[in-house]
Design brief:
The protein is of the alpha+beta class. The protein contains nine helices and six strands; from the N terminus they run ααααβαββααβαββα.
Length: 220
């Protein structure tokens, strides 16, 4: 299991990476940073669970935009050099709040640990949680009886985990990976950033192609 305490720059990169139109506008340098900051501020604050100064978001957006320029200078050597890559299909993306469940979150996580010790756990806000776990019958039964089950569980997904060496810039890798996948017609369902990994969530039918594209880039 991995937990994540996200920073403002990480949340900003996640929001932009999973939004194709915003991503493309930023890549072409045709977007107003302040206007974008106003647009995504509610989402940033929701994921962090506390108010965030607008100027802080603007700075995070500018730094992410700068990474598109910086990586042009390092294309002779892959940004993903020596990265480790793993693919897991049959993934459930489960999003719930304290009001959705009868048990406390700690109890729920204990049950996940029994069935899948490699699940990923993210706290998006004070009472909102996200879990990425294998699509197992026991885990499905934990949620299928809930009235809001259809809104909690997203199925048919795969997870690609990229571990970047500690001496490499993870910000470069995030924008670079998003660009490679977009250029190959692969749309991300979501992206998460833990302390050690970049975690990509895709539709299962896109996962094999995405894995091969990234593996080829690592080997370049």
């Amino acid at each position: 299991m991995r937990t994540s305490n996200l920073s403002v720059p990480e949340v900003v990169r996640e929001i932009i990476t999973r939004n194709r139109s915003i991503y493309d506008c930023m890549k072409m340098d045709v977007i107003n940073y302040t206007a974008l900051a106003v647009k995504i501020q509610p989402d940033v604050e929701k994921q962090l669970g506390n108010p965030v100064n607008l100027n802080t978001i603007v700075v995070a957006i500018k730094r992410y935009a700068d990474s598109f320029v910086e990586k042009e200078d390092v294309k002779t050597e892959s940004v993903l050099k020596n990265a480790r890559l793993s693919l897991t299909d049959g993934i459930l993306d489960i999003k719930f709040s304290s009001s959705d469940i009868q048990d406390d979150p700690a109890s729920i996580l204990g049950k996940f640990e029994q069935y899948d010790s490699d699940y990923e756990f993210f706290k998006l806000a004070d009472s909102t949680f996200r879990v990425l776990t294998e699509d197992l019958a026991d885990i499905r039964r934990m949620f299928e009886s809930l009235p809001s089950a259809k809104n909690i569980v997203n199925t048919g997904l795969a997870k690609i985990k990229i571990r970047i060496p500690a001496d490499q810039n993870r910000s470069d890798a995030v924008s670079y990976v998003a660009e490679i996948l977009h250029d190959n017609g692969i749309e991300l369902q979501n992206a998460y950033f833990s302390q050690d990994d970049i975690i990509l969530i895709l539709k299962e039918h896109d996962a094999s192609k995405a894995y091969e594209v990234l593996r080829a880039e690592i080997s370049r």
